[in-house]
Amino acid sequence: MLGAVNPPVFENSLFTFATAEELGEALKDEDERYVYWRGTNPTVDLAQRKLAALERGERAKCFGSGMGAISATVSSLVSAGDHVLVLGAVYGPTTQFLRYLEKFGVTHTHVDDLAGGDSAIRASTRLLYFESPSYMAFQVVDIAEVTGWARERGLVTVMDNTWSTPLFQKPLTMGVDLVVHSLSKYVGGHSDLVGGVVVGPARLVRPLARTEYQLYGAAMSPHDAAKVIRGLRTLPVRMAAHQERGLAVAAFLDGHPAVRAVRHPGLPSHPGHALAVRQMTGFSSLFSLVLDTESREEVGAFLNRLRHFRIGVSWGGFESLVNAPALSTEESVRATMGIPVGLVRLSVGLEPADTLIKDLELALEALSATRY
Fold first, then answer.
1. Pick the catalytic residue: 59, 61, 185, 227?
2. What is the CB neighbour count within 10 angstroms for residue 321?
3. Residue 289 pLDDT greater than 90, yes or no
4. Which residues of 353-366 are buried (b: 16+ CB within 10 A; e: fewer)?
5. What 3 state SS string does 201-215 have?
6. Is 91 assigned a catalytic role?
7. Which terminal CB of the chain, N or C, has fewer other CB atoms within 10 Å?
8. What values do phi and psi take at 48, rounded to 5?
9. Mind listing the pLDDT tens digit for each residue in 180-189?
């Protein structure tokens, strides 16, 4: 418009019509027609079309948060009496939402692999939900195998693709029915927005856009949509830098005497590395390590010694972040998810890799020194 290189942000909450008849027609399809912000908005619509194209999906719907997208998507696919299979470790609030659905008669079962899925599946199972790489453990799932298994059993598949971004992995091309993302992470890229999206075929996205999206009210704002568009423009450059720095830091930690394990799918030592190389075109910089300790106090001291890794939740921005589930997650929950006391999650930002490695080196030396 007018030669502007940045799309204009439509801030208005509503749109008017020349006649009552035009309004009546528009109200029949608020996902397609601009009526009210809670339905859609030109700026949000542009972000949706870009995300759908990048993910190789027919349609996308943006939400005010990642959990807005996840809860609306799951709700659109199940009814009272239905059962959900969860494969592997998934984002904690996703599990919390599935527990919440129990009050409405929707049950779920967590399984570690497809053999467990064969044992846990029921006549009422409708949905298979998973992540790859998985939450905290960063296990790699054979997406084509999983979707084939689910399809044979009549299940809809939903996968969280936030870790890889649609740049490095395209699950829809491997048989996944619906893909969800937290746009707050790498897509936004600047730690200044909260948003989510679901992408997939129109036959699945349009019903949830017309019902759950409208009724739950988790609408994305046009200003956040503009930030999504901005983030998509620099995503390839930023992800290349995240990948380079993340792998450098992970390689330093791999085999360090104070570290029991490093869980980064981009490392050749990762058990799912060969599969990851086949499924992905690149690697992000979020991964975990397991410190050689069973002490929560030592884990906390390690975090406190870091100077360039800031302690905080979320990930995907310029700044490097560190977090440890043992300091905030109940032991029973950690045991269910297979998270040891010494697990530390790193989000490697865009600072120089040698600066971050030196920061970790000093903290690890201090951890080792306390033993002697």
1. 185
2. 21
3. yes
4. beebbebbeebbee
5. CHHHHHHHHHCHHHH
6. yes
7. C
8. -60, -45
9. 999 999 999 9
Does residue 120 surpass a pLDDT of 60?
yes
Question: Can 227 be counted among the known catalytic residues?
Answer: no
Residue 185 annotated to the active site:
yes
CA contacts within 13 A on the Cβ side of 273: 10
Residue 17: how many CB atoms within 10 A of its CB? Answer: 15
Residue 362, token pair as written in the block: 């000093």
Largest CA distance in the chain: 81
Residue with tokens 């043992």: 326
In whole angstroms, what is the distance from residue 54 CA to residue 57 CA? 8
> pLDDT tens for residues 65-85?
999 999 999 999 999 999 999
Render pLDDT for 341-372 as a digit per residue (tens, 0 to 9).
999 999 999 999 999 999 999 999 988 876 55
CA–CA gap between residue 110 and residue 325 (Å, rounded):
19
Catalytic member of 33, 36, 38, 50: 38
